[in-house]
Amino acid sequence: MFVTDTSVLPTILIVDDQPSNILSIEQAISGLGELFFATSGAQALVIAESKKPDLVLLDIEMPGMNGYEVCQALREMPSMANSVIIFITSHTEPEKEIEALRLGGADFLHKPINHPIARARVSTHLSLQAKTKQLAASQQNLSDIAYNLPVFIAHWDHQFLCLYSNDREGAWIAGAVEQQIGQKIGQAFGERFHEQVEKVLPALQESGKVTFDTSMRSPRGFLRYVEVTILTQQCGEGEQACYLMLLNDITARKQAEDALRSEKERIRVMLESIADAVIATDADGIVTYMNPAAEQMTGRMASKYCGRAIEEVMPLYVGQTSRVLQNPIRVSLIEKRPVGMAIDTCLARADGERLNVEDAAAPIFDQYGDVIGAIIVFHDVSVARQLAIQMTHIVNHDSLTNLPNKVLLRDRTENAIEIAALHKHRVALVMLDLDNFKMINDSIGHSVGDLILQKVALRLKSAIGRGETVCRQGGDEFLILLHEVHDVDMVGQFCESVLATLSDVYLVGDKRFNLSASLGVSIYPDDAEDIEALYRHADSAMYTAKAAGKNKFSFFAHEIEEGLKTKHDLEMRMRAAIESNSFEVFYQPKYCTTEEKIIGAEALVRWRDETGGLISPLSFIPLAEETGLINRIGAFVLKTACKDCLAWQALSPNLKVAVNVSAIQFAQADFVCFINAMLRETGLSPSLLELEVTESVLVCNLENMLIVLKELRGMGVSIAIDDFGTGYSSLTYLKRFPINVLKIDQGFTRDMLRDESDHGIVEAIIRMAGSLKIDLVAEGVETKEIANELKRLGCTTMQGYYYGRPQPAKAFIASLVQSNE
């Protein structure tokens, strides 16, 4: 009885136009498989197409399509090629059974159905089919294994004609497998290979197996190395022997062997050529190899000393004494680890001279982890010692200025603090940062900046006394360590002398530079008890000096450190605000008194805190410039202002927007390209954009600034001088620079009606601007009386609370609409 696994039951299709017959057959074969039923030939074909039954019980006599026609249609289906078809008939005529067999039937069941016979026959056919499937699967597996083996397998007859090949892809013999069958071995692999096979035939006939290596060309033309194995087989009783041949591609192995030989030769040449001495020994410390450098250094030739103990070839001593040192080779062999030479090791040459040597020995292990020898590499230490001195200097000194670096300063500071603690005196650490040095690097170039730093280093070295240390810790920051401070007032005098020394003009080529510095002082043990606090507090004091106006020095106070923490927190919040787009742009109107309307606006950045309140620009703009964040903030303001100004043109054609530009932004090498790109992106005409700069920006780098401003004016962008009169005002630069507008600082306009000096300054600026044909804008106009007086003096464009406070874009549009009514 055929037993099946319920999870893989065979499928059986019963086809009969009589339901009673189907029921009878179902009862006979119940449990032998998953049963499907059809009452017509057409229905049977549909079910067969989808279910692909393993066995079909097919009635011959059916209306429409009879059983013969259904059988023929089933056999034409590729999926039914291996299915078993058993005809069911009530006829016993031999000719009908012959026709059924001719059409592909496998057996017959006669009506009425004999249940035991029907069950036995169906079970037998299903069992045979299952075994046939297993055999086919096994054959397919063997075929797949053969075809996918990484070796070539072929079966040849006694004349070496190919009977079988697994070279399905044609990797060994050109052409498909079908084309390879019947080829002679010489035709397949060439006559040279055939001749090699002929030579080994006697040995093959004697032992039944031969193996040899050879080379051959692949069908694609590349050379491969092959291991050939041929075995004799008996093809059949009384027939001549056949041959089974396996070809294994050993190209990689051959290439590895060649590479190993090449590597050995390369190592030999390298060892013969290097300047270091190399000696190899076996596991007993007997010398097996010496390179020429070892022969020269020891004064002993390999031809004479190979085969002797390492101690005879390389006797070692402690310095120039008679104390013998154990050779590192011996220690390495015993302890099975790399071993370095002891300090002050000397090698006694054959002529008695002693050389200072150093380096190390290491054991050699085989593949099993056993020590099979050792190698020692050594050289004359005098060169290494000189190099070590140089390296120590490099590690401890700044490469640009040759001053001690922070590493060396830390060591000296720790020593100074220890001595100060012992002798009850003070140590002072002065941090020095050059003011606005970044602008020199950005505008003139780092090469000039480096030359200036070198000059600063020379001046600082000349300013310190013997025993003091000045170091460069990076960029334009320097540290000065005053080792023994007995009078704090002397530290202040020292700082003043440093500021004076640095203030002299710096000449680099034909250029002159004026520099200043900010100094911060921290004193041990008054301000700090360790080096970290001493450094941190000097840094805090230095920032206090910068905040006080630069070119100053400041001593540390605890309030300074708290201020720096607050400053750091503000910087972090400002970075977060940039990422979250928390900045806004407000606009303050510029009013023309002759036209009696708004003719422009100044864009002003605003920042709201977490509660919605506004943070004063005076709190974050200086920090933004110091940290470089002003570039990102400035780009946001410029882009927003350009977009808003473009939108205003529908309300007030030719209305301009003014945007403040810091010195940091101007120092960017691609500033002009940046402005041009922003105008193209927003679509704003250059004639509607006005850039406001302070006088300090202009005088920072006159030549470079002149080029930038001319390029901007060439684009059509207007240039305004902000806060005019508060900086280094000069008729010379007003004449040279392409300036469109002067903005009179609000410090003069607010008190001009009460202070004669301020009134005189405003009047002089207005007359000067008229003479130079430069437009004017008066800032800080807060009353009608001030506006009338300015208008009387000749200034007609004004900006201030009298005409409007800085306001968001929507509020400014409302003001603009009202102004145009």
Automatic annotation (TrEMBL):
InterPro entries: Biofilm_reg_signaling (IPR052155), CheY-like_superfamily (IPR011006), EAL_dom (IPR001633), EAL_sf (IPR035919), GGDEF_dom (IPR000160), Nucleotide_cyclase (IPR029787), PAS (IPR000014), PAS-assoc_C (IPR000700). Residues 11-126 form the Response regulatory domain. Residues 210-262, 341-393 form the PAC domain. Residues 567-820 form the EAL domain. Keywords: Phosphoprotein. Coiled coil: none annotated. Residues 425-558 form the GGDEF domain. Residues 263-332 form the PAS domain. Pfam families: EAL (PF00563), GGDEF (PF00990), PAS (PF00989), Response_reg (PF00072). The keyword Phosphoprotein applies. The keyword Transport does not apply. The modification 4-aspartylphosphate is found at D59. PROSITE patterns: EAL, GGDEF, PAC, PAS, RESPONSE_REGULATORY. PANTHER family: BIOFILM ARCHITECTURE MAINTENANCE PROTEIN MBAA, DIGUANYLATE CYCLASE DGCP. This is EAL domain-containing protein.
